[in-house]
Structures are given as C-alpha cells and as structure tokens.
TrEMBL record, chain A:
This is ABC transporter permease. It comes from the Bacteria. The lineage of its organism: Bacteria, Pseudomonadati, Pseudomonadota, Alphaproteobacteria, Acetobacterales. One of its GO terms (cellular component) is plasma membrane. It comes from Roseomonas acroporae. The keyword Transport applies.
TrEMBL record, chain B:
It comes from Roseomonas acroporae. One of its GO terms (biological process) is peptide transport. GO terms for molecular function: peptide transmembrane transporter activity. Signal peptide: none annotated. This is ABC transporter substrate-binding protein. It is found in: Periplasm. The keyword Oxidoreductase does not apply.
Length: 312, 535
C-alpha cells in the first residue's frame, strides 16, 4: 500500500509539470496585464516601465523556468495587483471554499445516496419517477437560478438565513452553517442528481444478483439488504462518481461564491482571470490540479475498503 | 427569461418580501458596535491599494479615506486648502511657497513634514498628466523647513491648486517620505496614511473585504466637510467595504440590512429599491458620466477625419443612452460636447454635427468619400461591462446602417485593456473602435480629460494628432481668469468636434442607495464617508 501511494505521488510530478507548462502558455498567450495596470492615463513608455518592473519583458522561457523554480521551492509568486503573496491570497480564501465543498459533499451524499437506493428499490413506481424528476431538475436548473430562489425564499421572505457572506467555523457552528446552508443546497443540486442517478443504476444491477436473492430467501430484512449487502457492493461506481463530481463542485463554486458573496477561491480565480493576474491564475490552477490528483488517489485507495479483492 | 430579467424579478420579489414583513436589519454585531460600523458595497473590488500606482476609481475612493491631500475640490469644483494652511505665489507666478497646517500626523504617529510632501509630490507628478506638466516646467520642489516647501517653476502654472486638489486619479496624496520614494511604477508595500481613516491591512481580503478604522490622531479642518475640502469628521469608527460582484446579491443584502450603503446599483434594480421603505435612493454623482466611442486615428478609415465625422453625424445619443440607463429620461441628456454639463466651462460650441435628426445617408456618403470600401472594422466590445456592451450593441446596428462591415469582437474588459494599447493593424491584433466611459469629474475642464489629448504618440489610445487642438489646450492652461477660460473652451470644443477626436455617446447619471438609518450621504464624484452616521 505504502509503495503504491509513493508511486502515485511520484507520478503526480510529471502531471503537475505538464499542467504548469500548459497553464503558463495559455496565460501568457493572452498578453500581459501591464496595460491594465497602467491605467487610462498611461503612455506606451509607462506600460513598458511597468512591464519591465514586473519582468514581463524578459524571454518567455526564462520567465517560465524562473517561475517553475520558485514553485518548486513553494513560492507561487506575488499578485501583480494586490502585491500580496499568492500563497497568502490562497490561504485567505481556502477556508470558505473548502467549507462550502465539504458541507455540499456531506449534504449531497447524505441526500443523494438514500434517494438512489430508494429509487432502485421502488423502481418503476411513482416514487422512483418522482426521485428521477428531482434529479433531472438538479441537472437542468442553473446554480445561479437555484441560488437566487433560495435567497429570496429563505433569506428575504423567511429570514432564516443571511443573504450573503461567510462566517468562519471559529466564530461558532450556527453562524458558520447559517451562511453555508443555502449555497450548499444551490451548489449541491447537480451533484445530488449525479450521485442519485448513478446510485439507482448501480443498485438496480446489484439487486438482480444471486446473493441478494439468497439474502432475501434467508429472511434478511429489506433495510439490511439495501444498505448493507447491496449498497456496499454498489459503492465503487458511486465513490468514483463522487470523486469525479468534485470537479463539478470546483466549477460550481465559482458561480455559487459570486451569488452568495462568499470570499472563496472560485471568486479569486475569476477575479484573477478578468484582471490577467498571472501569478494568481497559475497558483490557483496548480493548486486545484494538485487537489484533484490527490482526490483521485484517495478514491482509488478507498476501493479496497469496499472490495477486499482490490489490493495495492 | 434571460439572466437580466431573472435578476429584476428576484430583486422585485425581494422588495415585496421586505415590505410584507416590514423586517428591519438583523445586525450581526451588538447594536452599539453595529451603529459605529458602516458596511459599504463599493463599485468594484479593491484589488490594489496604491492610489498613485493604481488609477482605478475604486482605489482613488479608498485612498481618499486613508490619505489626505494638500488641497481638495468642493462641490463648486473650487480647490480649497486641506493640509495646506496657506500659500504664497510670487509676483511672476514662478514660485509657489506652501505652509502646512500644524498638528498633521501620519497613521504611525509621526508628524507630516514638508520633506514627506515633497517626496509625495515627486511620486505623484511622475504619473499624473497635470503633475507631468508641472514637472516639465519645474526648476525644483524642495522643503524649506518642517512645515514649508517651495515649488519653483520656469513658467507660470495658474492651475496649480486645482492640480493638487482634483478628484480624478491619480490624485496628490501625502505619504511618508520613505514610502513615497517607491518607484512610481511599482506598488507601495506600506499603507501609512495621513487621512481620517486607517487601512486595516490585516483584515484586507482582496476581492472580498477591505476595512478602515477611524484614526484618532487626525485633525480635521474647522470648516464643514464639502467633498474633498473642509473638515473630514468621521462619525463612524469603522467602515467595512464588502465586495459583491453580483448585483442581485447586493440588492438583497441591502434590503435585508446586511449592508448599509451601495455605491452603484444598476438601473434595473432601482424601481425595486425605491419601493422599499427602508431604503433611500438618489443620484450618486451629479457630474455623471460620458459615454465614449473611441476610434483609432492611426488606421483607415478613421485616419481620415471624414470617416470620423460620419460617425458623429450618424450617432443617435438617445439610442445609446436608452441602452445604458433604460427608459428613465431623467438619467441622461444629449451631449454635443466633450465636457461635463452644468459645470462652469461647459460649452456646446461646434456641436451642431451631433444635434437634430440623424443624417445616415450623408454619413454613408462621407464615409465612402474617406475611401472606405467595406473592409472589416474591428470593434472591441467588453461584454462584462454593461455600459460598454450596451454601447457596442447600439454601435453595431448604427454602423451597419451606414454600410460598415462590422467585425464585432465580443470579449472581456481585460482583453480590451490590452488590445487597445496595440498600434498594430486591426487585422493583425489591433483595433478600429472600442468603448468606455469617463467620469464627469474627469471632464470638467481639459486638464484631467485624457480623451481630448491630441499629441499623437503621447495621446490616449487611438493616438489622435492635432497640433491645433493641443495648442488650444495649452491656451486654456494659460488663461488667467474664468472669462478667458470660457472663451478658449468654445474654440477648443469646436476644434475637437471638427477633428472628431472621439464620438461622445451621451451624458448619463447613476444612482446610489442606502438604508434610511444612515444619514449624511452626499452626491459627489466619489463616496465621501466623512459626515456619514448610522443610527
């Protein structure tokens, strides 16, 4: 197991290098931010001075190598706009995004898996159809629409939750969760739909298996059959989809954080892209890539928990 | 239903909800502390905090809280003494001697000295267009003693006080010498101010929040506060800027009492906010804004004045303004001028080309006479800025009507900002047309008005070259009094119109909104926080 983890971690290095090179090329192909930084009164000479001050007048390959060298030392550079280290900016923003994603994850898995199991159990009935309609809606309605509706109903009409913002967990669980519950529901819509559908499909297949029929013949209770015998054997595709779905969450967080004014990494990324704040774009994309690679590793490792035949 | 319609509908529903429940703000802090904290939604993210290096309006607005200036303009657009106690000008107008007020302090507790001011002026004058003019004619600027400094010039500069007190970026802020010695093209890294509020760097989350705390050591002037002039008395202890990129969210947060003051609600939201009994709505800036349709003077067809005049002749400002502010006629007015209406130097001389029924056939003929033969016209339209998108959409329609083959490049403002700096051929990464807007405060006279500079390579994007226009601008700078200034302005505006330096698409106003437990909000070119209180 340890050797496998080590091999996988080493394998991330070329992946990250490729990501770094691609991100660098894509970002720098779009020009540089000197003209934006210079403002409306700038002359071409002013822009050239800013380009020089930021080092954008050096050969691209030199810029790439220097940036890569700094990254390898843990230095993601400094934002050209805020003058703050990129690591500081990521650190400022990571808690709200991680909190939002974790709450969404817990909520989505907690809702979607039982939904999928029940839909499979009651396949073909109105319950199954109702659950699948909810799933289709989750896929179809954009996050910002769900977000606005939730804010209108639960914040403006009922005054149960705030409209916007983020409160750190350190200031108490109730304010923390109050700020996150609506964004998590909005963000979780697609995720719930995805997990519920894959759970239903996988469970339908598992429930046809001989050992389920044997369990029924032995008089095992329905709940135990569904959640102990069948679900455990259906878990691998579900866990895989949960992992893949984290990419959806990262994308959806950008919109959700804007709609609910959550100061997270999604908004940081969008702001950086719109401003051409290259060091921030590169830093955030690298970090997301690394996180995604690690999540995939964790998912692979989790397979052995559900299926003892899988060994690393 | 599109996103804009959905946004209006949800905002309206929110207003009804607010009315129905009659709900008051639900403060997150204890009541007393909440009343001493003003939560403000600014027009944009405070992405950097160096008002000399970063020329965005939002940086200027935050800078005005933290740094003081030697002079400040009032609501009559007159520069008044601010950090300066008095000044003397030599008989020949070549030597200005300034004396600072006693008791001025920086936020680190150190006194403000003349050497700090000199260093600050040196940094500012390297970046500001008026500062650069002074720099070009200066012999020296030097400290005489701790409270006195002198600026010696080679030729008179009658607009000195205006230059040091104007509102447009970059403005002449005073910072400690060690910080002011930073290269003007690099950002400062310390934010030690001289104004009424201290910047809380430790609470700054760019893109999300900026916090300012009252500076106890600030000594306001005795006069009442008036824009950048007079006593800047802070009536709240803390100002929190909450960055909200989404207008529906900002609208809901204001209605829900989660924020107190919103700098720039879009016109779609205004009827909703006006219906909420807890919210006050008023014009934000009486100096308004001027829409700009900028043409590239370097490349055909707009290197020919006939093509540029054809555009002015075809422009229906009503169409542009309707696209920007909607059907509220009180929010816009026609602008056959390059200067801000209702200001002392406003003139419409030479603006006949923009008045009366639009002459599309004549414009089409004029365009053909300029040699235009249907080549693609590259038009950069930033889609992420509602004002530029509105102008671009109207312009595309208008241009097609006069036979222009429009290459509509739908992009973001960041790309426009980069590409407009390119002098390359439009087919090779350059451009023919882009859109923006100027704050009216930047167009009250020729000094801060970049759009009318016509010095070729040194001019603003589009690089117009007209020695005649530049001569008239210089004539205005030398004008000794208002009457003389007005006389020059009439000739200057006419010359600019004849040259069709750019196409003004109209004058428009915008709103601000605040909760009614906030008082003291005034109209102005930037949000003035002094004199604002919260109950």
């Amino acid at each position: 197991m340890f050797a496998y983890i080590l091999r996988r971690l080493i394998a991330t290095i070329p992946v990250m290098l490729v990501v770094a090179a691609v991100v660098f090329m894509m970002v720098y192909a779009s020009g540089n931010p000197a003209a934006l930084l210079a403002g409306d009164q700038a002359t071409p000479e002013d822009i050239a001075r800013i380009e020089h001050a930021l080092g954008y007048d050096r050969p691209k390959i030199q810029q790439f190598v220097e940036w890569l060298w700094r990254v390898m030392q843990g230095d993601l550079g400094t934002s050209v706009f805020t003058n703050l280290p990129v690591t500081t900016m990521i650190a400022q923003r990571i808690e709200p995004t991680v909190s939002l994603m974790l709450v969404t994850l817990v909520l989505s898995v907690g809702v979607a898996v039982p939904m999928g199991v029940v839909a499979a159990w009651k396949a073909g009935t109105w319950i199954d159809r109702a659950i699948m309609v909810i799933a289709v809606l989750g896929f179809s309605v954009p996050v910002f629409v769900v977000g606005y509706i939730l804010a209108w109903v639960f914040a403006l009409q009922l005054d149960w939750f705030p409209v916007q913002g983020y409160t750190p967990l350190s200031e108490g669980f109730i304010p923390f969760i109050s700020n996150l519950i609506l964004p998590a529901i909005a963000l979780g819509g697609v995720y719930i739909a995805l997990i519920a559908r894959i759970t239903r499909a996988t469970m339908l297949e598992v429930l046809q298996q001989d050992y389920v029929r044997t369990a029924r013949a032995k008089g095992v209770g329905q709940r135990e059959i569904l959640f102990v015998h069948a679900l455990k054997n259906a878990a691998i595709p579900i866990v895989t989809v949960i992992g893949i779905g984290i990419a959806l969450l990262i994308g959806g967080a950008v919109v959700t954080e804007s709609v609910f004014a959550i100061p997270g990494l999604g908004r940081l990324t969008v702001d950086a892209i719109l401003r051409r704040d290259f060091p921030v774009i590169q830093g955030v994309v690298l970090m997301f890539s690394f996180v995604y690679v690690i999540i995939n590793l964790l998912i692979d490792l989790s397979y052995s928990l559900f299926d003892p035949r899988i060994r690393y | 239903m599109d996103r804009r319609g959905f946004l209006k509908a949800t905002a309206a529903a929110g207003a009804l909800g607010g009315l129905g429940s009659g709900r008051l703000a639900s403060p997150a802090l204890a009541q007393g502390a909440a009343a001493r904290t003003l939560r403000f939604v600014p027009q944009a993210n405070l992405a950097n905090f160096d008002p000399v290096w970063g020329t965005q309006y939002v940086v200027r607005n935050a800078g005005a809280l933290v740094w003081d200036t030697l002079y400040g303009v009032d609501d009559k657009l007159e520069p008044q003494r601010q950090m300066v106690e008095g000044e003397e000008v030599s008989q020949d107008g070549l030597t200005w001697t300034f004396r600072l007020r006693p008791g001025l302090k920086f936020h680190d507790g150190e006194p403000v000295l003349a050497k700090d001011v000199v260093a600050s002026l040196n940094r500012w004058s390297a970046r500001d267009s008026m500062g650069q003019m002074i720099r070009a004619i200066q012999n020296e600027v030097a400290a005489v003693d701790d409270r006195t400094f002198v600026w010696k010039l080679k030729s008179p500069y009658p607009k000195m006080k205006f230059a040091l007190g104007k509102t447009n970026s970059p403005f002449g802020i005073v910072m400690p010498e060690r910080i002011a010695k930073t290269d003007p093209f690099s950002q400062i890294t310390e934010y030690v101010g001289s104004g009424p509020m201290r910047f809380k760097r430790d609470e700054w989350v760019p893109g999300a929040k900026a916090v300012f705390e009252k500076f106890a050591g600030y000594v306001p002037r005795d006069e009442p506060g008036n824009w950048l002039a007079g006593g800047k008395r802070m009536l709240v202890d803390r100002v929190e800027w909450v960055i909200m990129p989404d207008t529906a969210t900002a609208s809901a947060a204001l209605q829900n009492g989660e924020v107190d003051w919103w700098e720039n609600p879009i016109s779609d939201i205004i009827p909703t906010l006006k219906r909420n009994r807890n919210i006050a709505v008023d014009i934000a800036d009486p100096l308004g804004n001027i829409g700009v349709f900028r043409m590239n003077h370097l490349h055909p067809p707009f290197n020919d004045v006939r093509a540029r005049r054809a555009i002015l002749m075809a422009t229906s400002q009503e169409d542009y303004m309707a696209a920007i502010v909607g059907d509220d006629a009180a929010l816009w007015k026609p602008l056959p001028s390059f200067f801000t209406p209702n200001t002392p130097l406003y003139t419409e001389a030479g603006g006949e080309i923009m008045k009366g029924p639009r002459r599309l056939d004549e414009a089409k003929r004029l365009l053909q006479e300029s040699g235009y033969k249907g080549e693609p016209i590259v038009m950069l339209v930033a889609q992420d800025q509602p004002i530029t998108k509105a102008q671009g959409d109207v312009a595309a329609d208008m241009l097609k009507k006069i036979g222009v083959n429009v290459d509509y490049v739908a992009t973001d403002w960041g790309t426009v900002g980069q590409r407009r700096a390119s002098k390359a051929l439009p087919s090779q990464g350059g451009w023919h047309i882009f859109f923006t807007w100027f704050g009216g405060a930047d167009c009250i006279n020729p000094a801060p008005n970049n759009g009318v500079r016509a010095g070729g390579d040194t001019a603003w994007w589009g690089w117009p070259n007209s020695p005649e226009c530049e001569a008239l601008r210089n004539e205005w700078f030398a004008a000794p009094d208002l009457a003389a200034e007005k006389a020059v302005m009439a000739r200057y505006n006419k010359a600019l119109m004849d040259f069709a330096i750019y196409n003004p698409t109209g004058f428009f106003l915008a709103y601000q909104a605040w909760r009614k437990n906030v008082s003291g909000v005034v109209k102005g070119p930037l949000p003035f926080f002094w004199g604002v209180s919260k109950s």
